[in-house]
Amino acid sequence: MKEQDVCEVPCVDQARITRVQRELKEGSILDVSKLFKALSDETRLKIAYALTIETELCVCDVANLVGATTATASHHLRHLKSLGLAKYRKEGKLVYYSLDDDHVKQLIQIAFEHLEELTNRG
């Protein structure tokens, strides 16, 4: 027998719809969407994940980790910074990046924990 994954009869719970619509803030949805788009890039996710393992890394270390030029690594790091996911500090001629706050670190760690759970299920 084929599994049905759609409602077989139309029904709408208007009270539920109204309650959820009040919570859906268009600006917030767009901003969170940008955050996930940034992390959907494999290189930027690798950089962000590396920054959950090591508190901070210089641009040269990041470039080496992801197998890119320092210019490319800088581009990705600036993008993460522009979205509020990363921050940097300059020490002499070196620039060190870290995650902006613990929320970003938790978000990335939870994603990888979820992946591990999925892998262990199958």
Q: What does the model show?
A:
This protein is α+β, with helices and mostly antiparallel strands. The protein has a domain of 81 residues: Arc Repressor Mutant, subunit A. The protein is built from 6 helices and 3 strands. A 3-stranded antiparallel sheet has the order 1-3-2. Helix 4 packs across helix 5.
User: From the alpha-carbon coordinates, what is the Rg to the nearest angstrom?
Assistant: 20 Å
- Net shape: elongated
pLDDT < 50 runs, ≥5 residues: none
Tell me the fraction of residues in β-strands, as a range.
5-15%
Counting DSSP H or I runs of 4 or more residues, the number of helices is: 6
**Main beta sheet strand tally, sense and closure:** 3 strands, antiparallel
Assign the CATH topology of the domain at 41-121.
Answer: Arc Repressor Mutant, subunit A
Major sheet strand order:
1-3-2
Helix fraction, binned, reads 55-70%
Average pLDDT confidence is 93
CATH architectural label of the domain at 41-121? Orthogonal Bundle
Count all strands and give the number: 3
Q: Give me the CATH superfamily of the domain at 41-121.
A: Winged helix-like DNA-binding domain superfamily/Winged helix DNA-binding domain
CATH class of the domain at 41-121: Mainly Alpha
